[in-house]
Amino acid sequence: MGQNEQQVRQLGQQIERLWEQISKKDEQIKDLQQLIVSTQQSLDKLLEHQLAERNRPSKWSRRSSRHSSRKPVYNRSFVNQLIEQNFSIQSPKDLQFCGQGSSFCTYAFRHEQMDKNYIVRCAKHSDSIRRLRWEEQLLPQLGPQMPISIPQFEKISHMDNGLPFCSYPMIEGEPFEEKHYHRLSNPKKDVVIEQLVGFLRVLHSFPVEEAVSFGIPYRQFEAVPIEDIIQFAEKRLYLHLNSDQQERCQYWFDFYRRNLGEFDYQPTLIHGDLQSRHILFNTNTNLIEGIIDFEDIRISDAREDLYHLQESYGDDFGQRLFQAYGIDKSNFSHQFQFRRLTDIISEVFIALLDKRDRETEHRLRELREFLLQPLPDLKIIPTGS
């Protein structure tokens, strides 16, 4: 009996040790689970932040004003004093707030002694400094080659807060909106297209090495990596789609993954923000007067500029644009469609994050309509262009 009791005690001790080990493993598993949850939450927050940075405000939204209309960072009194101090004039005429983007607050005024209208752009924050530096170095080199006007700075100095401002003679005209294009005769449409293509050819042929020496950055077409957008879609978007819509959306993602090589590009200097308010149009002559706001200049895919022009003005414009530029549009149609899909998905998520229910439903309807389009072959023929 004594030997049996000893064996029982030993077995009991072994069982206790095993339970201790199991308990420790359970704690480790719980710790790992908590780490996984915490990591996923951090990833979600990071991706949400990236999407928000890309889409707030929507960069490609169509606006009728020449600039955005948010309340100015610098008021009229401040800018009035700035002009008086730097242009040696008293009470500048017709001082008007034009609007502001993410980097600059813009005013216009009349310089009577020079008999010119001027633009004054005031930096909003420290990041504006490098953007202004890009323009300061690049625009003088591009200007003489351009078929249309672009800003040519006459003064760059600093405000009392230490941030820079610049001024240049105003390029006259109003935003080139879609309605202006559709009112043109076919010959006039071709003339406008040739003007824009001439601008793009000069810009896109600028030496990348020289642009890099100015500090102009490389930047992907998508501000948020495609795989991150896909992950968001699979985790959250599909909750708002039926099974057929989910399958069609997933088909597009598979199309992208199977044709990665077709999304490669030759690094090129691009404008990066060719929306209607940055293209100035003369309604009397029916000609483009100039293109402004180069603060988003970057080295990326030349097709980005073409893509957003087509998005602004429609398929007829896009067909003429590609033909004049010398690219077969059909070779890129599915890539453009996929990029449009990722744009819509990004807009859906921003609306969800901001809890804007009506906007969310609007974007979801837009997505569902997109998913009704014919699907591409999963493997496309190489473009060779």
CA-atom Rg in angstroms = 28 Å
| Helix proportion | 40-55%
Read across the widest sheet, the strand sequence of neighbours is 1-2-3-5-4
Q: Structural class, please?
A: alpha+beta
Segments where pLDDT lies below 50 for 5+ residues?
49-69
| Total DSSP E strands | 10
Q: Number of helical segments? A: 12
Indicate the proportion of strand residues: 5-15%
Shape: extended
Question: Quick check: average pLDDT?
Answer: 85
The largest sheet, given as strand count, sense and whether it forms a barrel, is: 5 strands, antiparallel
Q: What is the CA–CA distance across the termini?
A: 90 Å
Q: Which architecture of the largest domain would the CATH scheme give at its second level?
A: Alpha-Beta Complex
**Count of the domains:** 2
The CATH class label of the largest domain is Alpha Beta
Q: Secondary structure elements and their pairing?
A:
Blueprint: H1 2-55, H2 76-87, E1 93-100, E2 104-111, E3 116-123, H3 127-142, E4 155-158, E5 164-169, E6 174-175, H4 178-183, H5 186-204, H6 208-213, H7 226-235, H8 243-258, E7 267-270, E8 279-282, E9 287-291, E10 298-301, H9 302-313, H10 315-325, H11 333-353, H12 357-370
Antiparallel strand pairs: 1-2, 2-3, 3-5, 4-5, 6-8, 7-10, 8-9
Helix pairs in contact: 1-11, 5-10, 7-11, 9-10, 11-12
